Amino acid sequence: MAKLLSILVLTLIASTSVLSAKEFQEHNSLMNHGDGHMMDMDGGMVMGNNTETLPGGCDKIAATKEITVHAGHKYAEKFPGRMFAFDQQEFQFEPCTKLTINFINDDEVRHQLMMHGLPKYLYPKGMFHLEVTGPGSISGTLILPSADKTYLVHCDIAQHMEKGMKAQLKVGKGSGDLPSIPGVSAYVIQDDYSESIPILPSAAEKALADKKKAALANVEIQPNNAVISGVMIIGLVIGLLLTPLLIKKFKGKTFPEVITYIFEILGDFIVLIAKMIKRLIGLFLSKTKVLPDK
Questions:
Q1: N or C: which end of the chain has fewer CB within 10 A?
Q2: How open is the CA angle 57-62-64, to the nearest 5 degrees?
Q3: Helices 203-250 and 255-288: crossing angle, nearest 10°?
């Protein structure tokens, strides 16, 4: 009985694994939405498809080429620290080439092959785009411009390019190498896992530290604010109490007379304070005076 149960469990696990794995799908029945935009309901999409219209400066199609580009996790194994990659990182064709790209996704996730910087009068948003969700293939065609230039080829899914899925396509002599192309050009920020490198706090940890610092700053400021508020309240109360008396006192007087009276009050107040301080000093000295020996 136990043996039969084990067989059933293993069969169930195997069946679940088979069902969870997506079958390889060729996306070749795409709906045309105009302007070179085609897609299906199964995760396949082409944007900027162009098989006939020549870019400016191209009198004719100089050559017809076809390439196959794979995308997947396994192609990043040769690049330490990378997670995804294309199987090729650099392409070069002569200007005005009619290029067909067969894009194959070997992963269970969605991948893209995108080119930026193309002429916007010919390619909407200046972009050529192939996309496949899960294992599958899709094809698209474009005609390369006439000028020597290096174009970025990458996957635009969040973090896929940063994790290694990045390449460059040179038309003619190109315009130099792009940064951080795996196996072609140096990384702008090189990965370094040595123990001598200090571990910097994450964005979340830094935000928490800043929040604590701000909270402590508020705690220190609050007592001062309380004192200031108390003094302001006392001043307002005294002002409200004295206002009727001052209005009665100043009634019928000119502005210079009011100013003169205020300065007289301030002078009397200063004299009073001086007398009080003098008296306190006298009392203090009399209590601390050393009596002579008998």
A1: C
A2: 130
A3: 110
Is there a contact between 188 and 148 (Cβ–Cβ < 8 Å)? no
Handedness of CA 257, 258, 260, 264 (dihedral sign): positive
* Residue 182 · residue 166 · CB < 8 Å: yes
CATH number of 24-171: 2.60.40.420
- Sequence-ordered list of residues with C-beta below 8 angstroms from that of 274, at least 6 positions apart, any chain: none
Query: Which pLDDT score, from 0 to 100, does residue 77 have?
Result: 94
3-state SS of the chain is CHHHHHHHHHHHHHHHHHHHCCCCEECCCCEECCCCCEECCCCEEEECCCCCCCCCCCCCCCEEEEEEEEEEHHHHCCCCCCCCEECCCEEEECCCEEEEEEEEECCCCEEEEEECCCCCCCCHHHCEEEEEECCEEEEEEEECCCCCEEEEEECCCCCCCCCCCEEEEEECCCCCCCCCCCCCCCCCCCCCCCCCCCCCCCHHHHHHHHHHHHHHHHHHHHHHHHHHHHHHHHHHHHHHHHHHHHHHHHCCCCHHHHHHHHHHHHHHHHHHHHHHHHHHHHHHHHHHCCCCCC
Q: Which residues pair with 149 in a beta bridge?
A: 171
Q: What are phi and psi of 169, to 5 degrees?
A: -120, 120
CB atoms within 10 A of CB 132: 26
Q: How far is CA 91 from CA 111, 152, 173, 174, in A?
A: 19, 11, 11, 10
Closest to 65 measured CA to CA, from 171, 184, 198, 199: 171
Cα(282)–Cα(248) distance, integer angstroms: 39
